[in-house]
Amino acid sequence: MGLVYSEPICQAAYDGDVRQLYHFLSEDPNGLNVQEPRTGDTPLIAACRRRNVVVVNYLLENQANVHLTNKKQRTCLHYVSKTSLSLLDYLLIALLMPILLLGYFLLLQKQRQSISVMTAVLSSRINVNAVDYKGNTALHYTCLRKSYHLVRLLLDRSADVNIKNNDGETPLDIATRLKFNKIVRMLQKTQ
């Protein structure tokens, strides 16, 4: 289940196979920023789609270009911000919740994973206000996902709360519409 890339290095990054990435990069260092023909994803974007902090850190240490965008004009930061739980994650959480709160701990682990990947990506010189083809920034997506911790990380990096997407909504408008009051207060403090 998941994406299948025609570029082997993108697939290795998506699958979280650091050994395979090392092998590909030792053979061809230029493969670090290769873009998959169908989607335009880079290995870094592929790793961010899966929230794999080990692979993201490895690629960033090897100077992966964080500014590259795919065919939807999204950077790796957009995918960290867009990431939500998969259907399988929801099922596991629902099934394991009654059993010693294991579902709750799984949920916490997924949140920590997202925070770690976001922190790693933000440690680079990425443009936190980059917009995709819908005009959304990473802050728009974190507000849509009600990701308090990720919103705080973006605000700490001076994400612009006044950028309007193609629908004319700012991140504050989204949080207000969805009644995410804690995020609304966080965004209002920065204005």
TrEMBL record:
Keywords: ANK repeat, Membrane, Transmembrane, Transmembrane helix. SUPFAM superfamilies: Ankyrin repeat (SSF48403). InterPro entries: Ankyrin_rpt, Ankyrin_rpt-contain_sf, ANR22. Gene3D superfamilies: Ankyrin repeat-containing domain. The chain crosses the membrane at residues 87-108. SMART domains: ANK. Pfam families: Ank_2. PROSITE patterns: ANK_REP_REGION (PS50297), ANK_REPEAT (PS50088). ANK repeats lie at residues 39-71, 134-166. This is Uncharacterized protein. It comes from Echeneis naucrates (Live sharksucker). The lineage of its organism: Eukaryota, Metazoa, Chordata, Craniata, Vertebrata.
